[in-house]
Each structure stands twice: as C-alpha cells, then as structure tokens.
C-alpha cells in the first residue's frame, strides 16, 4: 500500500480506469496540461494523450452537452465541473437530461457519466466556490450522489462510479484534498455505491454524517467518550441513495441520533435522514432526532466562514442535548 492524500487517490482512480477502459474520457476546464485547479488530473494527458484527457472551453453547459453526446456514442465520460458552485450553468444537462436518460429510453439506453467536482468550506475560497449544493442533486431521481471522506474511499468509490451505467455526481471536499494521508492500495478495488460505513461503533448515540463533517463528528465522539458517552459515527458516503438499513440498525441499538451536515439546514440531506429515522424507528427513539448544520443564510465571505461552518463543538453541544433528554 501507499500513503496517499485524497487528491492522489483520485488521480490514481482516474489513471486506473483510463488504463482499464479505452472508452473512459476525462475532460473539463484546465484538466489537461495544467492537471486541474487542484492537480487531480496531473500527468494524465501526458500519459493517455489529448484525445482522452483534454481541456474544454470555460462553458459548463457545453461540458454537460458534450458528456451526453459522448455517452450516447458508447463512451464513459468523466467531466470535471471546476467548482460545484458552477453547477447551475449545467443543471439542464444533468437533471433534465442525464438523470432521465434510462427512463426516457424505456431502459434501452444509459448515461454512464461521472461528474467530478470540488466543493466545501474551510479553505477561504471566493464566492460560489465553497457552496454545499448536494441537496439539489440528491432531490433528482436518476442520479447517484457520492461524497467520500477519506483517500481510501475516494479511490474505491470513484472507480465504482466510473463503472456505473447511470450518472453519478462525485463531490470532493476541498478541505480534505491534502489534509491527511492514508494507506491506499495501489491496485484497483471498488467500494459499492449506496452503502454507508460505520466509522466508529458506540451504544449511546448515533451520529449520521458525510464528507468533511465525518472528521468533525469523530472528534466530537472522542471528546464525548472522555465524558463517559459511547458514540457511533456513520459515514453515509453515498447521499443518494441513502443506506437506510445501516442507519436504522444503529438507531435501534443506540436509541438516540443526531444528523450532521455542512450545508444549510433547509431542505438538506440531514432532513431526509431524520425523516427516514422517524418513519422507520420512532418506537426505538428515546429523544428527538436533532440536526447540526450551517445557518440558513448564503455562504459567507471567507472572513466569516469559521463562525458559519459547523464544528466538533457544535456537534458535542447538540449530542449532549439528546443524551440528556
């Protein structure tokens, strides 16, 4: 195994699939010679050529249309949207076309497109770069939405996404790109989409989360353990479809739960998880299911983001409310 950052694991996954399948194409703004804003595609054009790893104009709508056309012709496009805040420019292609392709064709055609994009706060980006817009994608039937929290999962989930015959939105939290290293197999492997991971086992409280908030939740769980509380942490990994079975099994064991997301509270993934818990396991609950989220405001300028973003202290505070109920 090799010690990799998340960005290195993503590059390794792309290289793996470019080698395995000549129909895999990687493209987007500055992904060729420059290797992308974060160097996720560094060296790939040199290795696989300009026909398979190439730059596009600065036009997200064009990237979306190109992806659909290539998929129609038998390719497996892996386009990059340079920052996920730019997804509005390509919403018709994604939600209006890709997501409906299998249904519209009567299950005779599919759209094996994996859209990669960085997102997330805590790195002082300009406006529209850090927004957590995953809720927009998860609300659209026909799309899978994947958010890894570690280098190991980034590689295995991305390979699975590229091999999937339906469109996948693969979101990469910018704060996690180079924040730590982890042992990652150099050979190919896959992690199934739609399957959550129990990052930490516990008996008193379940925390359900994803992305960068996994690490904040684990930190909170460690601090709560010092105070005598056993906390289980579930990493969703795929936020659409959600692994309801793993969540309910945990809640039936702990009888208490909170849900943590970086995005604003309104209409988010956390609300969906809370609904699933209350619909399926309300008789197991000994306290209300609470949420830890960002405020319902526009993402602030970078000077204020540390105050705006949820952190492990917020998680601990909410956890104690549920534990003490």
TrEMBL record:
Keywords: Oxidoreductase, Pyruvate, Thiamine pyrophosphate. PANTHER family: PYRUVATE DEHYDROGENASE E1 COMPONENT BETA SUBUNIT, PYRUVATE DEHYDROGENASE E1 COMPONENT SUBUNIT BETA. The keyword Oxidoreductase applies. InterPro entries: THDP-binding, Transketo_C/PFOR_II, Transketolase-like_Pyr-bd, Transketolase_C. Residues 4-179 form the Transketolase-like pyrimidine-binding domain. It holds the Pfam family Transket_pyr. Its cofactor is thiamine diphosphate. This is Pyruvate dehydrogenase E1 component subunit beta. The gene is pdhB.
């Amino acid at each position: 195994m090799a010690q990799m950052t998340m960005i290195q694991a993503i590059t390794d996954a792309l290289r793996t699939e470019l080698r395995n399948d000549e129909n895999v194409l990687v493209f987007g703004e500055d992904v060729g010679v420059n290797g992308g804003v974060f160097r996720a595609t560094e060296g790939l054009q040199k290795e696989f050529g300009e026909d398979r790893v190439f730059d596009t104009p600065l036009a997200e709508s064009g990237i979306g249309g190109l992806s659909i056309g290539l998929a129609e012709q038998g390719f497996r496009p892996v386009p990059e949207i340079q920052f996920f805040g730019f997804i509005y420019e390509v919403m018709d292609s994604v939600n209006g076309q890709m997501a409906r392709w299998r249904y519209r064709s009567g299950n005779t055609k599919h759209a094996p497109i994996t859209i990669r994009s960085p997102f997330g706060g805590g790195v002082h980006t300009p406006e529209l770069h850090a927004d957590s817009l995953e809720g927009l994608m998860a609300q659209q039937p026909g799309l899978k939405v994947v958010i890894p929290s570690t280098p190991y999962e980034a590689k295995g989930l991305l390979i699975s996404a590229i091999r999937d015959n339906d469109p996948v939105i693969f979101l990469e939290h910018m704060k996690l790109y180079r924040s730590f290293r982890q042992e990652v197999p150099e050979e190919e492997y896959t992690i199934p989409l739609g399957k959550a991971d129990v990052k930490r086992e516990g008996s008193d409280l379940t925390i359900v989360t994803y992305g960068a908030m996994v690490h904040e939740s684990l930190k909170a769980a460690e601090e709560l353990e010092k105070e005598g509380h056993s906390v289980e942490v579930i990493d969703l990994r795929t936020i659409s479809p959600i692994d309801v079975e793993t969540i309910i099994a945990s809640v039936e064991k702990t009888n208490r739960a909170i849900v943590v997301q970086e995005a604003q509270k309104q209409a988010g993934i956390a609300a969906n998880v809370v609904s699933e818990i209350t619909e399926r396991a309300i008789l197991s609950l000994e306290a209300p299911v609470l949420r830890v989220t960002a405020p319902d405001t526009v993402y602030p300028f970078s000077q204020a983001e540390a105050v705006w973003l949820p952190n492990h202290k917020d998680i601990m505070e909410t956890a104690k409310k549920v534990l003490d109920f």
